[in-house]
Amino acid sequence: MDNEQRLGVDFGRVIHGGLLAPGDDDTVFLDGSFEEALASPATEGVYEVLPGLIEAFGGRAWIISKCGDRIRKRTLAWLDHHDFYERTGLPRENVRFCRKREEKARHCAELGITHMIDDRLDVHRAIREIVPYRYLFGPKGGPEWVRHVPDWEAAEIIRRDIPAERSRPATRRSR
Fold it and tell me: What is the mean pLDDT of residues 31-47?
């Protein structure tokens, strides 16, 4: 695959629901009616930060989420209902699902993901040898091999981890 940088972002407790989700539950999104799921909130700050990150990655960004068919349908409906694609610049076709968290590693390898934001340490363990820049989203930090990002405001640090393009023109004039 080429050398272009690519961003992967989890859905539950990262894009949706965020710190509102108690304990080890993925999100309140899992319970309740379809209508309640559609009305449930995005994570605070996602619409302020994620569009700039997606732009910084040149639109090369994907949602990579673990869920079954019922939650996949809810997720896709939620993204449409909240105008997520238009509000963030994420291409509509850049949404991937898998049944087990460790399967996110396969998606990351296939897509050439270089930066991944996920709230689960087990996901980061699975992608550790595949994705060079890993961000553990949420209130709890992790081991030294994953960078802690407590919220979307702090996620701005990801911009600093995007290597400078090699093709940028020189800024100094020759003498």
Answer: 90
The token duo for 62 is 């994907």
Q: Which two tokens stand for residue 26?
A: 């993925």
CA distance linking residue 170 with residue 167, whole number of Å: 9
CA dihedral 141, 147, 150, 155 (to 10 degrees): 180
Q: What is the pLDDT of residues 68-81, one digit of tens each?
A: 999 999 999 999 99
Distance between CA atoms of residues 113 and 160, nearest Å: 16
Closest by CA to 19, choosing from 49, 44, 53, is: 44
| Ramachandran sector of residue 23 (left: φ over 0; alpha: ψ -120 to 50; beta: rest) | left
Whole-number Å distance between alpha carbons of 107 and 58: 19
The type of residue at 33 is S
Closest CA relative to residue 114, chosen from 100, 94, 131, 97: 131
Q: Per the structure block, which two tokens stand in for 11?
A: 């859905």
SS3 content of the chain, % helix, strand, coil (to 5): 40, 15, 45
